[in-house]
Amino acid sequence: MLNRLNQERIVLLISVILFIGFSVGLDGFLSGGNILSLVQNVSILGILGTGMAIGVIGRGIDLSMVSTMVISVAWMLVMVNDGTNLWVAFGLALGFAVVIGLINGVLIAYVEIPAIFATLAMGVAIYGFGKSFLVGTDVVYLPQGESWFYQIGSGRFLGIPNPVIAFALVALIVHVFLQFSKYGRYNYAIGDNLWTARITGIPVRPVMMLQYVLIAVIALLAGVVIATSVSSMNTRLALSTQVYDVILVVVLGGIGLSGGKGGVRNVIVGTLLIGILLNGMTILNLSYTAQNIFKSIILLAAIVIDTMLNPRDEQTAQHGDI
Amino acid sequence: MRLRTTFKTVVTAATLGLTGLAGSAMAEPFDDGQSKDYYAALKGKKVGFVPLSMGFDLTEGWNAGLQNQADALGYEVMVRDPNWNTEAGAQAANGFIAEKPDVLILHPLDMQAYNRIVQKAMRAGINVIQINLKSVTNGDVYVGTDWYEMGVKQAEAVVNACGEGSGRNGKVAFVQGMLANPTATIAGQAVNDVFSAHPEIELVATQAADFDSSKAQAITSTILKQHPDLCGILGIWDGQDIGTAAAIREAGLEDQVFLVSSGGGNQAAACDNIENGNFDAYYSYDVPGQARDLNSALKILLQTDPEPGSAPFALYTPLKYITKENMTPSSCWTLEELKAHGG
User: Fold this and answer.
1) Where does the Periplasmic binding protein domain start and stop, copy by copy (chain B) (predicted)?
2) Who is most buried in A67, A114, A184, B27, counting CB within 10 A?
3) For residue A139, what is the DSSP state?
4) How far apart are CA B127 and CA B312, in angstroms?
């Protein structure tokens, strides 16, 4: 019984326990409004996590994701502020994200630089390029407009906050892609064993390119949700530790960094745990430092329990773990 | 007739005289007894500036003013941008100390990080100005906000809106910024002092959002779910408070929750947000005014060239209170204006 508990289930269990604990112990936690805002507050993290999952499942990683998000969307806002048509600006930003994805892909698939180094360098390069040539100031403000585009991050649809819907849509699309499309299945094969996949005849390099393009586009979408919800984009986010939070959500949910395992469901579980934790601790009015301590203890606990219940052995271990 | 000739002679002489004077003005500036020394004292001097980062409204605004005056008076302001990194900032400052500029302007992110650098620069004979954020160690000059005053004023604004006599319940929240920053440490102390003198105010939540608007939004939305009858929120910086405002708007509580913010008074960051109702009140430390103060401090130091540390002084910024009601087209500023004729 116990060894049927993999990390996803452990995290789910911790989430449920916390959820019940907070519901009993905290007034107002269980209200419908609070639950929605709980999910809403982590939906951007969830969208980014879903993108990152594509990379991690294919045994890659994209540390440039937050830079891509910040610079492409900030550039879009700069263009809109200068009078460019919203959709033209969005199209250009999308093009920018795709180009970044392609560059990442080429560096990793063809130049064969390990993903962690290629994207680490690219993250700095994107931020530097963007701040030098595309975006002058740290914070770019979003003009208010009539288009439904401005409602993506702020309004509600059928009572559900739009960021939650955006997260659900991205999660659904990526789920369908990973589970049912040819390239999604190739992604698992590559993550599981690159050389076997290659010998089997899978177009390994193009699939890896596709991974990074998808991640960059999802990063752009997450950025649009941020910008339309807080009416601005703060480029300084690229220098923050947000990308680690994203990896955390992915790994916490049970997508191993060794690749080939897991799916969107894991990201959702990981995201929900973080959401419940943050929400409960904010209601408890815990100090910033105390919140960080609790967050890290719970994360460590999840990993320790998983390691104890499912010890690594020769057969399941893979080289290439980060 | 004779008179006429005399008059003509006088006019001619005067014209010639004026022309002569004008001619000599090109070669030798008129000295009113002080101006010559003034220009001579400033010309060719070197000033180093280490902001905590370029690229945001405050530092870009100050720098625009600094460069305008430097160009006009023939001295040089060199900028090294550590991009929010304290170590890189310390390195940049040490680099400047080795080059021995006449004045070093520091903008520390953290109250402790530059303490030794300030001392080292002054020992090396360089006058030190700290702008808007101050290390614990004093330099020759501090130009900027008195963060305690800022905290008191913001807290009082919230007390006015929610405290005794307002007919409201006194429930307020404080969405802090980054914890080691003087704005948080000193203003936080001020806020506590004010609230403890007003027992009717109940501080239901104090949370830090790291100057990140998304975090501020998440925190505020949770606080509002928990306290739907919240009366007021203290913000700490406009770039972050816009996230707080978004959460209030989303909860449909714009009319109920009083949000007071602060910042440099940039048009897009401040006045646009006061205009559209995101911020109910705003304390501006008026970057164009600070740029002028900074330039004045520089002119004083370069002319008097005091032994570092021998005559310290401070130019605390008068805070500008802006609301929708008292806002005028000149309440805020744009970088274009400052670049064109700031300082």
Assistant:
1) 47-303
2) A67
3) E
4) 10
Q: Do A282 and B204 touch (CB under 8 A)?
A: no
Q: What residues make up the domain containing A112?
A: 2-309
Is residue A139 assigned to a domain? Answer: yes
Question: Cβ-count burial of A32 within 10 angstroms (0-12 exposed, 13-18 middle, 19+ buried)?
Answer: exposed
B119 within some domain: yes
Radius of gyration of chain B (CA): 25
| Separation between Cα atoms, residue B73 and residue B272, nearest integer Å | 35
Query: Is A137's CB within 8 Å of B242's CB?
Result: no
Helix (H/G/I), strand (E/B), else coil: A218: helix
Domain extent at residue B270: 147-284
Amino acid at B230: L
Structure tokens that stand for B139 in this block: 């330099």
For residue A225, the domain's CATH number is 1.10.3470
Residue B70: which H helix or E strand, with range? helix B57-73
Question: Is B239's CB within 8 Å of A234's CB?
Answer: yes
| B128 and B235 co-located in one domain | no
**Per the structure, how many domains does chain A have?**
1
Q: Is A319 part of any domain?
A: no
* Whether the complex's predicted ipTM surpasses the cut of 0.90: no
What is the SS3 assignment for A234?
Answer: strand
**Regions of chain A where pLDDT drops below 70:** 1-5, 310-322
B165-198, pLDDT tens digit by residue?
888 899 999 998 877 777 778 888 999 999 999 9
DSSP B140: S
Q: Which residue of A has its CA nearest to B60?
A: A137
- Mean pLDDT, to the nearest integer, of B28-50? 89
In this structure, are B45 and B131 located in the same domain? yes
What the block records as the tokens of B102 is 């006449």
Q: Is residue B133 within 8 Å of B144, Cβ to Cβ?
A: yes
Check CB contact of A240 with chain B, cutoff 8 Å. Answer: yes
Nearest C-alpha neighbor of A257 from the set A151, A115, A144: A115
Number of folded domains that form chain B: 2
Q: Taking a C-beta distance cutoff of 8 angstroms, is the pair A229, A223 a contact?
A: no
Give the domain CATH number at B221: 3.40.50.2300
Is B67 in the same domain as B102? yes
Asked whether the beta carbons of residue B225 and residue A237 sit closer than 8 angstroms, the reply is no
Whether A271 maps to a domain, the answer reads yes
